[in-house]
């Protein structure tokens, strides 16, 4: 499962999201939106108004959402047990 966290510098919610994914052992990719203005424009056009924006194959959200991060970690754990 590919998880992408779109971040910006000096963003406490971005840092908290990355920390929580790491703590739960979830692999993710990061994209710094200041280095990718076209991606920022696309996310704004899609209705996202705050960082981070997290995109997974089955869901997406913005802001620090420990409940959704835990849900993703649980799904990955279930998938690993079924492999």
Automatic annotation (TrEMBL):
<dbReference type="GO" id="GO:0009055">
    <property type="term" value="F:electron transfer activity"/>
</dbReference>
<dbReference type="Pfam" id="PF00462">
    <property type="entry name" value="Glutaredoxin"/>
</dbReference>
<dbReference type="InterPro" id="IPR051548">
    <property type="entry name" value="Grx-like_ET"/>
</dbReference>
<dbReference type="InterPro" id="IPR036249">
    <property type="entry name" value="Thioredoxin-like_sf"/>
</dbReference>
<protein>
    <submittedName>
        <fullName>NrdH-redoxin</fullName>
    </submittedName>
</protein>
<dbReference type="InterPro" id="IPR002109">
    <property type="entry name" value="Glutaredoxin"/>
</dbReference>
<dbReference type="GO" id="GO:0045454">
    <property type="term" value="P:cell redox homeostasis"/>
</dbReference>
């Amino acid at each position: 499962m590919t998880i992408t966290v779109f971040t910006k510098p000096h963003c406490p919610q971005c840092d908290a999201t990355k920390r929580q994914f790491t703590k739960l052992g979830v692999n993710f990719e990061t994209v710094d939106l200041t280095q990718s203005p076209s991606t920022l424009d696309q996310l704004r056009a899609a209705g996202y108004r705050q960082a981070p924006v997290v995109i997974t194959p089955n869901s997406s959200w913005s802001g620090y959402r420990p409940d959704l991060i835990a849900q993703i970690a649980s799904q990955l754990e279930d998938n690993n047990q079924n492999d």
